[in-house]
Structures are given as structure tokens and as C-alpha cells.
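User: Let's play a game. I give you a shape written as C-alpha cells, and you guess the letters that built it. Ready? Here's round one.
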């Protein structure tokens, strides 16, 4: 049974199922969903809790042992299985499939895992979990979903964020829900249950945006010049080395150039994407960039990357961060600001 995150609470109020799988790479939502299941289990009398963390893959026999063991006091039991890699491997797949075939009585299995690849959802162990229990996948929040999440979070504290305040907060935390939750707590401490305006947010909220090179390359693929430039400035302020940023951008450009060339020669899109490890959500980003950028555009960007590399090495005059800024403009086909 597949559940959306906002359906979990209502489902838990009806009845517990034998197995829950919560997966995703957004830690706050993942943790809070798991907490909700643990709380529901406690309220239903599952007073014993056993935690198993799959780190090396040698821990799988512990799950079999826990499933087969009976409590001396016949307590209901929650098995809390942690699978950070979201890859159970061959042994884990067998253990999970066997568990679902004969689930122990008075036991709830809670599995928290990282983001699942699409191929994993076709595996026998995943299908067995889906048939026996509930699967909830959590995703990073963006756009309107992020705004709604922030408003609901604030309303739990009796606060109401005005429209400008909401947008300002969203811009500052950039999807980092852990930071957003902390900033909402800070606003509550400062102002209590009240109406929050933009000035209150700007005075009290630190800029907690997660700037990293992968977010930069995603922004470039989407053609979002303002976001790309903001992330670039954040990387520079955080002390990220210019060669690291250049490496990430150059890798994306070379990938686009090679993919475009192979598709032009008649390559099958799925096979070409698989060759260059373009998976899931990135497929759409890559397709948009391929549609927008011609081969000659990519050649110009590669030359700009080469020039910036020379600047980094001191072989030609110029600031490497200015070079990276110019590459972002070329990548997004944005006009350079007038210097006159």
C-alpha cells in the first residue's frame, strides 16, 4: 500500500499494518514520519522496541532472530530497522522477502531508508513490503509545497506568516527543512503566537540555504540564472574552492555534449542516458538543457571552462570567480549585465 506523507496520520489512526517503509533523502520529514509511527505503536501497546542498523550488511541475521524470538512477557514489539543506503543487497532482499512471507504476530517492522532508486521498486522485497504493509516516500519540498509546509509549521505555534514573510523565509532556507524548523522556533521565541511580517523574518532569520555544487548544476540545467548566480555567490562565501565548482560545471557540459552527439548519431535515448548515469528526475533537466543548448553553444561553454581553468592556474590574467560567473551566463543563455 502506497501512502503520501500527508495521509500517514489518518492511516495510523485507523489501524497499524505489519510493516512500514519510510524512504527519502529529506531528513526532517523522514524522521518525523518515523516518530509518528513509533508513537502510534506505543499507544497501541507495542512497548518493546529493538533497533537494528544495517551498516555493513552483516546485521541482517539480527532481523531474522528478532522475528523468530518470543518475548518472555509476550509484549508487542516494534523492530526499528535503519537502512541508510536504501540497498538491502542480496542477503537483505532474501531476509525481507522471507519476513513478509511469515510476519511474526504482535510485531511491527519499521524500516527507514534513504532515497530508493526506481529499479529497487521493482524488486521482489519491495513488492513484498508493498503488499503486506505501507510505503511512504518523502521528497524535498519546493515552490508552493514548501510555502504551505512553512505556513502549517508556523500555525502549529499559533503564528501566521504574511505572504511576503513566507516568501522571504522560503528564499532564505531554500528547502532546508531542518533549518526552516529551527528558524520558525526562533521566530516563536522572539515574537510568540503572533502575525509575522517580512521585517521580523529578515531581522531574525539566518540565511541557511544549502549551497552546493550539485544545486548549482541543477540550476544551470534548468536555465535559472538568478538562482545559479545566488548559489555561486554562496559557494564563494562558504570558501568552496573554485576548481571544485569548475569541475562540477565542466562535467555537466561534457556530459551534455557527448549525449547530444550520441543521440544525433541515432543512439537510443534510454541506453544513452543509462550510459551517462542520467536517472529519474535528472532526465527532465537534461532533456530541457539539450533542447535549449546547441552543440556550438556547448563548445563555447567548454572553451570558457578552459579559460577559467587557466585563470585558476595563473596562466592567463583574470579572476576565476568572474570566469565562473560568465560560464553561468553562457549556460543559461542570459545576457551579461551592462558595464556602461
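Assistant: Ready! My guess for every position:
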Amino acid at each position: 500500500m502506497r501512502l503520501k506523507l500527508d495521509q500517514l496520520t489518518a492511516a495510523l489512526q485507523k489501524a497499524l499494518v505489519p510493516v512500514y517503509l519510510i524512504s527519502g533523502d529529506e531528513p526532517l520529514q523522514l524522521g518525523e514520519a518515523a516518530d509518528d509511527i513509533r508513537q502510534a505503536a506505543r499507544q497501541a501497546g507495542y512497548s518493546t522496541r529493538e533497533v537494528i542498523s544495517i551498516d555493513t550488511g552483516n546485521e541482517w541475521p539480527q532481523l531474522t532472530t528478532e522475528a523468530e524470538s518470543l518475548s518472555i512477557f509476550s509484549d508487542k514489539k516494534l523492530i526499528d530497522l535503519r537502512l541508510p543506503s536504501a540497498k538491502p543487497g542480496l542477503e537483505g532482499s532474501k531476509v525481507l522477502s522471507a519476513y513478509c512471507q511469515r510476519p511474526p504476530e504482535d510485531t511491527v517492522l519499521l524500516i527507514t531508508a534513504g532515497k530508493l532508486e526506481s529499479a529497487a521498486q521493482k524488486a521482489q522485497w519491495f513488492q513484498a513490503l508493498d503488499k503486506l504493509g505501507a510505503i511512504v516516500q518523502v521528497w524535498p519540498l519546493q515552490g508552493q509545497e514548501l510555502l504551505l509546509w512553512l505556513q502549517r509549521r508556523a500555525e502549529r505555534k499559533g503564528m501566521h506568516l504574511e505572504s511576503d514573510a513566507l516568501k522571504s523565509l522560503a528564499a532564505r532556507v531554500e528547502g532546508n527543512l531542518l533549518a526552516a524548523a529551527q528558524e520558525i522556533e526562533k521566530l516563536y521565541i522572539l515574537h510568540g503566537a503572533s502575525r509575522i511580517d517580512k521585517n521580523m523574518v529578515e531581522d531574525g532569520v539566518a540565511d541557511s540555504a544549502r549551497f552546493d555544487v550539485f544545486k548549482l548544476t541543477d540550476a544551470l540545467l534548468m536555465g535559472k540564472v538568478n538562482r545559479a548566480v545566488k548559489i555561486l555567490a554562496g559557494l564563494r562565501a562558504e570558501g568552496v574552492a573554485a576548481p571544485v565548482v569548475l569541475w562540477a560545471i565542466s562535467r555537466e557540459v561534457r556530459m551534455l555534449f557527448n549525449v547530444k552527439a550520441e543521440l544525433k548519431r541515432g543512439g537510443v535515448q534510454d541506453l544513452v542516458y543509462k550510459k551517462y548515469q542520467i536517472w529519474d528526475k535528472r532526465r527532465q533537466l537534461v532533456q530541457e538543457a539539450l533542447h535549449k543548448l546547441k552543440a556550438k553553444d556547448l563548445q563555447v561553454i567548454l572553451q570558457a571552462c578552459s579559460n577559467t581553468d587557466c585563470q585558476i592556474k595563473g596562466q592567463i590574467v583574470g579572476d576565476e570567480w568572474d570566469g565562473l560567473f560568465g560560464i553561468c551566463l553562457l549556460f543559461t543563455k542570459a545576457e551579461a549585465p551592462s558595464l556602461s
